[in-house]
């Protein structure tokens, strides 16, 4: 059932299932992220046998066919959303609820199945705590609607979850640079020092930056800044979060520093970027 936003008199087409039993999966007209936190389950996914061992994420779409074969002490939760939830939508005090034709495309490939991709993604110890935190907040907000920006926060965490999973599954190679990239993609919302990256990559500063230059075309900390700004762009476009909230969500300690860096790299302020991106995407 859609959620009625009690602050803005609108239906929000999302659901949170605190105890997913897989019986109703896939949900009609919904994309679903299922977080398996313990146990294991054997399923037929589009007639293909798949074993899911916790902790893992299953990304399923309304077109999938899922049949449970066997479960062993499974505990899981699901967040479901209609594809229209990915439309940029914001609220105007003068015009009410506005939708645009902009689409969030972060992580949509995670739901597509082929001979290689089953939609199942392992969540190791480094990823688990972030996923647990973000799922907990999304579930709480669906039920509590703690303030008028509860939908923005859910969309923020959804963007972060899908973005992180997408980045982490681009490469399975555990090279020094990929280890540092993995650390960035998981922890970019927290304070990160160059020493943190050299430690996880097992390289000194010079070697790490040289490797980053060879592969990414920039230093490790420059990549971190670029990635934070990339996530910030999605949050600015698709949510009504304040600049301070966007800054904190993307690892900037102060919104003034975030504004300075964004303006220097993008040639416009975050507010100008938000207005421009939404104006460009308005339905005619």
Automatic annotation (TrEMBL):
Record-annotated HTH araC/xylS-type domain positions: 178-276
EC number, as in UniProt: 2.1.1.-
GO annotation, biological process: methylation
Annotated Gene3D superfamilies: Homeodomain-like
Annotated keywords: DNA-binding, Methyltransferase, Transcription, Transcription regulation, Transferase
A UniProt-annotated Pfam family: HTH_18
The protein's name in its UniProt record: Bifunctional transcriptional activator/DNA repair enzyme AdaA
The species this protein was found in: Clostridium chromiireducens
